[in-house]
Design goal:
The complex is a heteropentamer.
Chain A lengths: L2 E6 L3 H10 L3 E8 L2 E7 L24 E9 L4 E5 L7 E6 L1 H4 L2 H8 L6 H8 L1 E6 L25 E6 L2 E6 L2 H9 L23 H8 L7 H6 L7 H5 L6 E8 L2 E8 L20 H20 L9 H5 L6 H10 L1
Parallel strand pairs in A: 2-6, 6-7, 7-8
Antiparallel strand pairs in A: 1-9, 2-3, 4-5, 4-11, 8-9, 10-11
Helix pairs in contact in A: 6-9, 6-11
Chain C lengths: L3 E6 L11 H8 L5 E7 L5 H14 L3 E6 L2 H14 L7 E5 L1 H5 L6 H19 L7 E4 L3 E5 L3 H12 L3 E6 L13 E2 L4 E2 H14 L3 E5 L1 E9 L2 E8 L14 H5 L5 E2 L8 E2 L2 E2 L11 E2 L5 H5 L4 H5 L12 E7 L1 E4 L3 E3 L16 E3 H8 L20 E8 L15 H15 L4 E6 L9 H10 L4 E4 L2 E7 L2 E8 L5 E7 L1 E6 L1 E3 L3 H8 L26 E3 L9 H19 L3 E4 L4 E3 L25 E7 L5 E8 L9 H5 L5 E3 L4 H10 L1
Parallel strand pairs in C: 1-2, 1-3, 3-4, 6-7, 6-18, 7-10, 18-29, 20-27, 21-22, 21-27, 22-23
Antiparallel strand pairs in C: 5-30, 8-9, 11-12, 12-17, 13-14, 15-16, 19-28, 24-25, 25-26, 31-34, 32-33
Chain D lengths: L1 E4 L3 H4 L3 H14 L2 E4 L8 H7 L1 H17 L4 E3 L3 H16 L1 H11 L8 E3 L1 H6 L4 H5 L7 E4 L9 H4 L9 H8 L3 E2 L13 H4 L1 H17 L4 E4 L2 H9 L1 H8 L7 E3 H8 L24
Parallel strand pairs in D: 1-2, 1-3, 3-4, 5-6, 5-7, 7-8
Helix pairs in contact in D: 2-15, 3-4, 4-5, 4-6, 5-6, 12-14
Classes of the chains: A alpha/beta, B alpha/beta, C alpha/beta, D alpha/beta, E alpha/beta.
Chain lengths: ~325, ~260, ~675, ~280, ~140
């Protein structure tokens, strides 16, 4: 039911003005000392120029690195608890890439698998996504190998695809329609211009890989691949679909609060038991867990992949653990 | 004769169980490589782009189990090896450093020390630029600068885990009784983490800059440890990685250490 | 869940005057973990203490906080009370409401709030206190005395008379030390041998003393009460049991040209020798470096002559290990040689001698049998110049300190010379006369007034030899700095007293610190002069600083008293406030990574390496381990440790952190 | 081998023979002497009596000139020049502020990288070469007299043993002579009092000559123009005071070595001495 | 009118010298401002630099660290190690923009009761002028959604 429009480059201003006028915060990729970071913007001019994608993923908007779940205070011999209200500011994610946009559904799968995560849902509710198709790629990108693509609409409320003089605007969801309605004059009729989108070759046969993983659990390939991995959390924290978190209390005699923070299965303490036993003792087991969780357990449990092929983990890794390269290797051997 | 030929030779006649070097990575990057069979030696490459300090792998249980390994070593790597030997983490007979263009075999601590004497050490331009800017700031501006930089930290610990000197199995950050440093990466957690890490490297950091390179969000945190190391060198004359004999500034002293602020 | 009792004291008016104790006690009841909070006028009184004891039993308290005076004052009192009530004493802490609050602040709400805060700090700490038990260390009741001079002999005798076993180890073949070389001693001119020899014999015959001469300390391990000392008994090449000390071998030994150390090189001795006639034990030793047999394989006259066949050419050094509980260092001093004085001819002139050499010349058992004969040609010197402060108080010679005894023995030397050669002329060049002991100054005045020793206040700039005489060039500062030139027949330099050769190596073997001049360092110059920083090792005599005989004997008895005190109990109990390196089940075994950065931070060398081995003996890890006997609980290692593997009981990280978190 | 050379005023004036013998010996040993360009007075014994900064500025200028000419070492045969240059360099090195002040005075930078060496140090480097070049061994008993400025102040000069130096004795032994043990190696000869208080010089130098003769020396060997002139030129006053007729000659080390290496006596300037350089076998 | 700002001062002192000195201040009845809270540790060598950071995190406006004079340490070298640590940590704090004027390092012996009172008064007054250390107190909440 996508209705297509043509959004001229110039009328982005009116769209931005309409959105901010409607009290929405706009987050977009911005240029900061040669890095592309997601930051609040007020006008199209603030948006990064000719960028590939942000370093950290847009999941921040729905699943922040630190959020308060509740707080408590101890009085004279008594304790009273207070739930925290999620700071769900109406937000528009402008200019994120189709791969990241499609990541939210992987988060949603876990946050609403059993208990409905009040905080995540509140933020998703207040969130609208205006994705922009990719005119650039690099060797780390492999969205097409995991069911995505430079023009994929999955996860976006409106997908802008660059065309001559502006964008093809595909309004895809109710939220998309609501946003388009705020600035009808910006959306012209669709002249059917040719989409300028980059070509992303398929890197490996993903279904084949998922099938082959079932009997490769004890394979030595995971040891070989992970020898150089230093076991930090960079790949997990930049990944749009990594959803693991840690809960910790910060308190003193008078009271305190409970915080949720990002966590990474790559760390040496992730599965450390109080007894000192650690089911995933070696780095190879942890690397294998990262691959299996996204390419074997996710399909098995949620019938979707835990990876959108954005390549952020490869770019962020201090020792260049190229996920695409390793998956391709695992798929063939 | 280059690093590949040398590695093949070492592996063939069993001098070492593995060669830790660099190989080509994504988009021209270089990344650590573990070569255990002679025929895979030609994956190795050793040029200016090889940055990571491979000494960080010498304290890995998997590498320790291998026994004697060769390491492609830049000067910073050699300094890290000496410091690790000084802190009894690496045994002299378990490491063979391949310095210079990768063919200069340095099998003993003494050989490494002599080779290091010929290597100059200077600060990359980008770091000098930032340090210069910082030196012209007053306290409030320095506070603002570091708060802005550290606000981007997500505590992924890439800096800690890629640092050769951060080999502690149970780091202060992992300590929760008492919880010295908050787990969360809010402003306090980040400030205290990076402050503690810099202090723990004072007099131990070989200034290879790997922590700065490893940071996914590009925070120049290597300048914190460089500052501590320079402060140790300036005031106590000791420098990490100078010798394989332990000379740790913060657990030795001289009765006449000069300072001007104690009342 | 902790059940803590808080007892707030008024201390009469001292606290009550400015702090509302009732309100504080009342407020403390609401602190989580506090189950009993009362205030009372005098907590340290008997009724006060019994209040605590009853409360412990009645409320089943798991922790006690007494909010009163400084813990430095009554912590032991309240901890004993708590212990009597059956609760581990280390679960009791004190909040200092008096010295740190009531006495130093005005009476207002802020002061009462502060008092409540200080109590809450200690309540949070006590929640993290763990029961501790004093460290019990067995004490081996045998002492080791290193050095057989008067210091060592005196210490050994006192310890032995206190009923304990002593092993007296002496490097040279006989005990006696430098005192045995002296002719007579100031200020009484007692003959040194007459007052020393009886003590040497007493030491040799004392049932509690085992004498090991011609022996040195090879290695020392262990700690206070539990030392293991390895002594190297150098081969004398003589079987001590068979030898009767008849001396036949000495008289018949053909090689008699060896410079005699006992006579400071002035006399000669044979290859097989006894240092001096009254030597104890009177058993000879073969000097292997100079004995003809050891050099060319011929001779063996001594073996042929020995009536009891006691000569053993093949005898080897023997290593003996001893378990000892305490060690007294009495290794004495040495005298700076004359070749250290370029201005006096670098030791070229035979007639420029040092104090000890003069003692030998003056001694009846000396090479000249007490007759004043100068070493070069044996003539009796008509004029003798004594130069005080030769090397001492002279930074260029590296000896800025005063050697304390030279003023006195120089006056004695001059007096002895004048007694032997009444018409002889004696000059003494001095800077200041330091004669502070009992009857000391009177002794020096006697030398000047009765024995006509000419004291010239000035330094000697140069000595050179001319026509068989020594031209001594100096100045007389009391006569306007007039240059003085004396033609002397002999010059005696009162050279500096220095630490014994090898004292640095010995200090390192014992982990005892030493000062820049290699004298052993006492624990505290005024309050602990006979102890060192290493528990169980004590000091006596000139090995600690230049010292005369009376002080040496006093110090030796002091050290012996310390040893006797240590041996008065079967067990040594020590405060359990010591460091512990954590231990965990396999596979981590400990948070310690074995970097040993803590080891160099420990002033007491209390941190050792412990090897963790698998069942098949393979080395898994080397971890740090604290020797509770040596650790004094300063905690420097704790703040050096990056992995927080080491902690101090009583001031642990969790306790200090909990205290800080309440502020 | 090349080395900077600072003759100083006395080597061009009253002790010309020292300069002649140094040049002759240097030529024989293949050592090239590069005179410090446009050198000036070193301040000798008078400057530091008058003004501390003047006493530093004069030698500092010589150091600056040498540095400008790229020299790294200067041979100053005269003991007074050697002493003044070495102590000035040391003072400036230890007090940078003063050094900047002196640089302002002389209008030239002084880094102090130039080392100052005396004639004994330089000859010592040829110690192994000399025995091979001996044409006629200097077979005489000699008393080597070092004087004061070559060895004092010891902390600054760090040359040989200050109280009982050996370097000249070694050199003379290498030349075949027999150096005698005697007492007055480093005693003062009266130095500059030679002009104002000749009686003092007679007394002090007299002791030196007497002691040398008493120890059987046939010649006194020196390495300082001041000592040579006092022991040689003031001999009449010495003999008058001692009431003796000591004819023991006083030779520069460079002259003695020159003779031993067969260099002609006049080339060594021996004819300039007051006491004829004739060695009669000693009495004792 | 809000209450006038009263700074919160935390003091880490060694048991053998400065704590005993503070006791002497008490026995000599020398008054000083009551803002300081004193924590007793065996030796300055035991004072971990993280304790100072924690004190600020807990809302202290000023910190005092004091122990035996060099050469007086009951454990011979604890203060020498502490001094080296303070020199480096102070450089790092300054480099990161932490206000080192709020941290006072000192040596106070067991006989210097008056000097302890003077030190506490001086620090309390100067920190009062500097005002609350709000930028540090806000850190724990900055960056928390």
């Amino acid at each position: 039911m996508a209705d297509n429009f043509f959004l001229p480059q110039a009328s982005l201003d009116t769209l931005f003005a309409a959105l901010t006028g409607d009290g929405r915060r706009i987050l977009a990729p911005t240029d900061r000392d040669g890095r592309t970071e997601l930051n609040p913007v007020t006008s199209p001019g603030d948006v990064a120029k000719d960028y590939l994608q942000t370093i950290l993923s847009a999941k921040e908007a729905a699943f922040p690195k630190v959020e308060r779940l509740m707080s408590f205070s101890t009085g004279a011999g008594s304790v009273d608890l207070k739930d925290a209200e999620p700071s769900a500011v109406p937000t528009v994610l402008f200019g994120i890439r189709p791969c990241e946009a499609s990541g939210f559904k992987a988060l949603d799968a876990v946050f609403n698998w059993d208990t409905r995560d009040r905080f995540f849902n509140a933020r998703m509710e207040a969130l609208a996504v205006i994705g922009i198709g990719c005119t650039r790629k690099d060797d780390a990108c492999f969205c097409t190998s995991v069911g995505g693509g430079p023009g994929s609409t999955s996860g976006s409320d409106i997908l802008l695809t660059p065309v001559e003089g502006g964008f093809l605007a595909e309004v895809l969801t109710e939220k998309g329609k609501a946003m388009a309605a705020l600035a009808p004059e910006a959306f012209k009729a669709d002249p059917g211009l040719e989409k300028k989108v980059v070509e992303v070759p398929v890197a490996f046969d993903q279904p084949g890989l998922t099938k082959r993983l079932k009997d490769r659990f004890e394979d030595g390939i995971w040891v070989e691949q992970s020898l150089r991995c230093v076991g930090c959390g960079a790949c997990a924290f930049v990944c749009p679909t990594c959803v693991c978190f840690d809960i910790v209390e910060e308190a003193d005699a008078k009271g305190g609060h409970r915080l949720r923070t990002w966590d990474s299965c790559g760390g040496h303490m992730f599965t450390l038991h109080a007894s000192g036993h650690n089911p995933r003792e070696t780095q190879a087991q942890r690397w294998r867990q990262r691959v299996y969780h996204k390419f074997s357990y996710y399909p098995e449990r949620y019938d979707m992949l835990g990876c959108v092929g954005c390549g952020k983990c490869t770019r962020a890794c201090p020792v260049d653990m190229n996920l695409q390269e390793h998956l391709a290797e695992a798929a063939q051997a | 004769m280059d690093l590949r030929e040398k590695s093949r030779q070492l592996l063939e006649n069993g001098d070492v169980k593995a060669v830790i070097g660099y190989e080509r990575g994504t988009m021209g990057a270089r990344r650590p490589a573990f070569i255990r069979k002679a025929e895979r030696a030609d994956r190795l490459v050793f040029d200016e782009a090889c940055a990571q300090n491979l000494a960080t792998y010498l304290t890995r249980p998997e590498v320790r189990k291998l026994g004697r390994v060769a390491v492609a070593a830049r000067p910073d790597t050699l300094r890290a090896i000496l410091q690790l030997m000084a802190e009894r983490q690496v045994k002299e007979e378990n490491v063979l450093a391949l310095a210079g263009d990768g063919t200069v075999e340095l099998g003993t601590a003494q050989a490494i020390e002599e080779h290091l004497a010929t290597c100059a050490k200077e600060l990359p331009a980008r770091d000098r630029e930032i340090l210069d800017r910082l030196s012209r700031m007053d306290r409030a501006q320095r506070w603002a600068f570091w708060q802005a930089e550290l606000s981007r930290c997500v505590k992924c610990y890439a800096c800690r885990n890629s640092c050769p000197m951060c080999y502690c199995g149970h780091c202060t950050m992992d300590c929760n009784r008492p919880q010295w440093v908050p787990v969360a990466s809010h402003a306090l957690g980040n400030l205290e983490y990076h402050m503690v890490r810099a202090m723990h490297l004072a007099g131990r950091c070989v200034e290879c800059g790997d922590c700065g390179r490893a940071c996914p969000v590009g925070i120049p945190i290597h300048l914190l440890t460089f500052n501590c190391e320079e402060s140790v060198h300036l005031q106590f004359g000791q420098r990490a990685g100078a010798s394989s004999k332990l000379d740790y500034a913060l657990s030795t002293f001289r009765p006449d250490d000069k300072e001007s602020f104690i009342r | 869940m902790s059940r803590i009792g808080v007892f707030t004291c008024h201390c009469g008016e001292n606290i009550g005057a400015t702090v509302d104790c009732a309100k504080v006690a009342e407020r403390t009841r609401n602190v989580p973990g506090v189950v009993h909070s009362v205030d009372y006028k005098y907590m340290c009184s008997d009724p006060g203490q019994s209040m605590i004891k009853e409360a412990i039993k009645e409320h089943g308290l798991t922790g006690v906080v007494v909010a009163a005076c400084s813990p430095r004052m009554h912590e032991p009192t309240f901890r004993n009370a708590v212990e009597e009530a059956g609760l581990n004493p280390y679960l009791c802490e004190m909040a200092n409401l008096r010295e740190h609050c009531s006495w130093v602040h005005e009476k207002n709400d802020a002061t009462t709030d502060k008092a409540a805060d200080l109590i809450r700090v200690m309540v949070e700490k006590v929640k993290h206190n763990t029961p501790l038990h004093p460290i019990r260390v067995p004490v081996t009741k045998r002492a080791l005395v290193l050095g057989g001079g008067i210091a060592g002999i005196q210490a050994a005798l006192d310890i032995a008379n206190a009923g304990h076993k002593v092993v007296l180890v002496e490097k040279s073949p006989s005990i006696g030390g430098h005192m045995s070389q002296l002719s007579e001693t100031f200020p009484t001119l007692d003959c040194s041998q007459c007052i020393l020899t009886p003590r040497m014999v007493e030491a040799a015959r004392h049932p509690n003393i085992t004498l090991m001469t011609y022996a040195e300390l090879e290695k020392l391990e262990g700690f206070i009460g539990n030392f293991k000392a390895t002594i190297r008994r150098k081969a004398r090449q003589v079987d001590e049991k068979l030898c009767t000390g008849c001396g036949l071998c000495i008289t018949k030994c053909p090689n008699k040209k060896i410079p005699d150390e006992f006579n400071e090189g002035l006399g000669k001795r044979s290859a097989i020798y006894v240092p001096f006639p009254q030597a104890v034990p009177n058993k000879p030793v073969i000097d292997k470096t100079n004995c003809t047999f050891y050099k060319s394989g011929k001779c063996k006259v001594c073996e042929k002559m020995c009536p009891t066949g006691a000569i053993r050419f093949d005898q080897q050094d023997e290593l003996v290990t001893l378990d000892v509980g305490a060690i007294v260092l009495a290794t004495g001093f040495k005298v700076m040689r004359t070749d250290k004085f370029p201005e006096y001819g670098y030791g070229k002139y035979a007639d420029v001698i040092d104090g000890l050499q003069f003692e030998r010349l003056a001694s009846a058992s000396g090479p000249t049998l007490g007759v004043m004969k100068r070493p070069s040609d044996g003539k009796e010197p008509e004029t003798v110049v004594f130069v005080a402060c030769s090397g001492s108080r002279d930074r260029a010679k590296g000896v800025p300190y005063c050697s304390k005894i030279c003023c006195m023995y120089t006056a004695k030397h001059a007096m002895l010379y004048k007694h032997k050669m009444h018409h002889g002329k004696a000059y003494v060049f001095y800077m200041d006369i330091r004669s502070g002991g009992k009857d000391y100054d009177e002794f020096v005045r006697r030398a000047i007034e009765e024995d006509d020793v000419k004291y010239i206040r000035g330094r000697v700039s140069r000595i050179y030899e001319e026509d068989g005489q020594l031209i001594v060039k100096g100045a007389d500062t009391l006569m306007g700095g007039e240059p003085v030139e004396i033609k002397a027949d002999m010059v005696v330099l009162a050279t500096a007293v220095q630490a014994q050769d090898g004292s640095e190596e010995l200090a390192q073997k014992l982990h005892v610190s030493y000062d820049p001049y290699h004298f052993f360092a006492e624990s505290h110059p005024k309050l602990k002069p006979v102890e060192t920083n290493t528990a169980g090792i004590y000091l006596a005599g000139a090995c600690q600083a230049p010292r005369d005989i009376p002080e040496t004997v006093a110090q030796a008895s002091g050290a012996a008293a310390k040893v006797a005190a240590l041996f008065s109990r079967d067990e040594l109990t020590r405060e359990p406030v010591v460091a512990v390196v954590n231990r965990l089940p396999a596979p981590t075994f400990s948070y310690c990574v074995g970097c040993f950065l803590c080891q160099s931070a420990c002033p007491y060398q209390a941190i050792e390496a412990e090897e963790i081995r698998g069942r098949d003996g393979t080395l898994i890890k080397t971890l740090a381990k604290v020797n509770a006997g040596l650790c004094q609980g300063c905690g420097t290692c704790v703040s050096t440790c990056r992995t927080k593997a080491i902690d101090i009981q009583g001031f642990s990280n969790e306790q200090i952190f909990a205290e800080l978190m309440t502020l | 081998m090349k080395i900077g050379y600072y003759p100083g005023c006395s080597l061009l004036g009253s002790s010309r023979e020292f300069d002649e013998s140094v040049r002759a010996l240097a030529q024989a040993l293949g050592l090239e002497l590069v005179e410090v360009p446009d050198w000036s007075c070193c301040g000798a014994s008078s400057a530091h009596v008058l003004d501390h900064r003047l006493a530093l500025a004069l030698p500092a200028r010589i150091l600056a000139q040498a540095e400008a000419a790229g020299l790294t070492e200067i041979l100053a045969p005269c003991a007074a020049c050697y002493n003044r240059l070495a102590t000035a360099r040391d003072t400036l090195e230890k007090d940078p502020a003063l050094a900047r002040d002196i640089e302002a005075v002389i209008g030239q930078p002084v880094t102090g990288n130039v080392r100052i060496v005396n004639v004994l140090e330089v000859l010592d480097r040829f110690r192994d070469v000399i025995p091979g070049r001996i044409a006629k061994p200097f077979a005489h008993k000699v008393a080597c007299y070092y004087g004061c400025l070559l060895v004092r102040p010891a902390k600054v000069l760090k040359f040989d043993r200050p109280e009982d130096p050996r370097s000249m004795d070694r050199l003379m032994a290498a030349a075949g002579a027999e150096p005698r043990e005697w007492n007055f190696k480093t005693e003062c000869c009266g130095a500059a009092f030679s002009v104002t208080r000749t009686d003092l010089v007679a007394k002090m130098s007299g002791k030196i000559v007497a002691d040398a003769v008493r120890h059987g020396a046939e010649a006194i060997i020196v390495a300082c123009p001041m000592c040579q002139s006092n022991l040689d030129m003031r001999r009449p006053e010495i003999n008058a005071r001692l009431g003796a007729e000591h004819t023991i000659p006083v030779l520069f080390i460079t002259q003695a070595l020159g003779l031993a290496m067969g260099i002609d006596a006049t080339k060594l300037g021996l004819q300039r001495h007051m006491v004829p350089a004739v060695m009669t076998p000693a009495a004792v | 009118m809000t209450e006038p700002f009263e700074p919160k001062i935390t003091a880490f002192v060694c048991n053998w010298c400065t704590y005993a000195g503070a006791d002497l201040t008490g026995t000599s009845r020398i008054k000083y401002q009551s803002n300081v809270r004193v924590l007793r540790l065996p030796c300055t060598g035991r004072i971990d630099f993280m304790l100072l950071a924690k004190a600020f995190a807990r809302g202290s406006d000023g910190v005092i660290v004091s122990g035996c004079h060099p050469n007086d340490c009951h454990y011979t070298s604890g203060n020498y190690h502490a001094r080296r640590r303070w020199m480096i940590y102070r450089d790092l704090m300054d480099f990161m923009g932490i206000d080192t004027r709020r941290v006072t390092f000192s040596w106070v012996s067991a006989a210097e009761g008056a000097r302890w009172a003077e030190l506490v008064n001086e620090v309390t007054t100067s920190v009062r002028e500097l005002g609350p250390y709000t930028e540090y107190k806000e850190l724990a909440l900055t960056g928390v959604e």
